[in-house]
Design goal:
A: 193 residues, mainly beta, 15 strands, B: 183 residues, 46% strand
């Protein structure tokens, strides 16, 4: 038990039909740097009065988006889908939820985000999809702090944390069935190698 | 092109006394409460302060490195602390900013220094501590909550990571601990 596997596993359904399952995502720079960045957080301080200041964590403002591109593979520096369906960054799911898998007994920990687009809310042929989580990219020696005397926040912007695409060989492009709900389960998992 | 589909979170440790390298870049063993802390960051929504002069302390604030004397207990994922911790804190503790060594490797590096003669007993285990988050409720929020130092990862003689050693009293003991995300 030395290294920890850090992976994202994606399953897509239309209604009860599984379009594909357990495809591994590709993390972007946000998906890599956010973990050491949050490990580097010292403290938050409210020094002005009865206000709220806060730092977002990964599930703040999270979302998923789908796109049509089938030719551009994922690179670490990529920050958006190549051709999102809907206005950039894309049409958000109609419903969102998440669960945590407690690994206390097993050593396998996970957060699973689920996005559901209701029938007919998105149209097109899907060639790429992305998980957007709130990212952290503060780089400060000896930790970073957030001090404010008012209502204020940091790290509240969701960015493309990981992506899955036809161009990466992750799945085959498929047309959205507008009579069924489209659902994506995105499982970010930590487990002992 | 970097695929970035099979990433690892790991740590490497080097221990020096003067010019002598006592432990050379060995892999650490991250324990369950370290993983829980990372999952908590992933599933959480925000950490906040809501009243005057209120702090919320977390991760790096509590980070430190401790040595221990144990040479018989291997690290398991349920290990929660060093088996026989030497309570003496480092005389100096610092960390570098999270940095991209290459585009597919991001690291956080901690450095602990004990002055000559401060640790005199045998060292058979070493632990990295962190203010690990503990809440794993999806979308959790907290206000005015400080966490506590808990073991994040460990190396030990019993895991065959290094041979137990007794620091010499004439030189500083320097431990460099790198935690990273890499392909």
């Amino acid at each position: 038990m030395s290294n920890i596997n850090y992976s994202g596993i994606v399953t897509v359904k239309q209604g009860n039909d599984i379009v594909f399952e357990n495809a591994k995502n590709h993390f972007t720079t946000y998906g890599m740097q956010t973990i050491p960045c949050f490990l580097n957080l010292n403290y938050i301080l409210q020094n002005g009065g009865t206000y709220t200041n806060y730092t977002g964590l990964c599930s703040n403002n999270w979302s998923m988006y789908i796109g049509t591109n089938t030719s551009v593979a994922t690179t670490p520096g990529m920050t958006a889908l190549n051709a999102p369906i809907g206005t950039t960054p894309g049409t958000a799911p109609s419903a969102k939820s998440s669960v945590v898998i407690d690994g206390t007994s097993t050593g396998i920990w996970a957060t699973i985000w689920t996005g559901v687009w209701y029938p007919g809310t998105v149209i097109g042929t899907i060639g790429e999809m992305a998980l957007y989580l709130c990212y952290c990219n503060t780089t400060t020696a000896n930790g970073w702090n957030f001090t404010s005397g008012s209502n204020a926040s940091v790290n509240v912007t969701a960015g493309m944390f990981s992506r899955l695409s036809v161009a990466d060989g992750d799945f085959q492009a498929f047309a959205i069935d507008t009579t069924k709900a489209l659902s994506i389960d995105w499982n970010i998992q930590l487990s002992y190698a | 092109m970097t695929n970035n589909s099979d990433l690892k979170i790991g740590g490497r440790v080097t221990v020096r006394q003067g010019d002598d390298i006592l432990v050379d870049n060995v892999e650490n063993h991250i324990v369950n409460q370290g993983l829980k802390g990372i999952i908590s960051m992933l599933c959480g929504s925000y950490d906040s302060c809501t009243s005057l002069n209120q702090y919320s302390y977390s991760n790096r604030y509590y980070a430190t490195i401790n040595c221990g004397t144990d040479t018989t207990h291997r690290t398991t994922y349920s290990t929660t602390d060093l088996s026989a911790k030497i309570a003496t804190a480092p005389n100096a503790f610092s960390s570098l900013s999270p940095n991209a060594i290459i585009t597919s490797k991001w690291v956080m590096q901690y450095i602990a220094i004990w002055n000559p003669g401060v640790i005199t007993s045998q060292v058979g285990e070493i632990g990295l501590y962190n203010g690990n988050y503990t809440n794993i409720t999806p979308g959790w929020t907290s206000a005015n909550t400080s966490y506590a130092a808990s073991l994040f990862s460990r190396i030990s003689a019993s895991d065959s990571d290094f041979v137990a050693f007794t620091p010499v009293s004439t030189q500083s003991l320097v431990i460099t601990w790198e935690i990273g995300v890499a392909a």
